[in-house]
Specification:
0% strand, 63% helix, mainly alpha, globular
């Protein structure tokens, strides 16, 4: 599924990753873990903040790039901005095989199908 990113997608990805890192809160990670949210790359960004970042037009290519980062909150953001009409069976199979937490599963299944 990895492919070379268009310059505008690469730029948007960089901006969103900086914003996610700016919003990161290690104290929030403890709360996330308390509710069973797991993952190797937890930043501790709240859902309201993720939703604020998702207030942009839908972008399938950017969603794919966000998912590939492996960052928990980036994967949730990917689910929020992807375009369900463009989600393929191959993509969904790949994403579901990588679910590592209930909240990522909820967001992907609720927004991408």
């Amino acid at each position: 599924m990895k492919s070379e990113l268009l310059p505008e997608t690469q730029s948007a990805l960089g901006v969103l990753l900086v914003k996610l890192n700016d919003l990161a809160d290690p104290a929030w990670v403890k709360g996330m873990e308390h509710t069973g949210i797991q993952g190797g790359k937890l930043l501790g960004v709240s859902m309201p903040n993720i939703h604020l970042l998702a207030r942009r037009k839908k972008d399938h290519e950017l969603a794919l790039a966000l998912w590939e980062t492996g960052i928990h909150e980036a994967r949730i953001l990917a689910a929020l901005i992807d375009q369900p009409a463009l989600v393929t069976t191959v993509q969904m199979d790949a994403w579901t095989a990588q679910f590592d937490s209930w909240d990522v599963c909820d967001q992907v299944c609720g927004n991408c199908m």
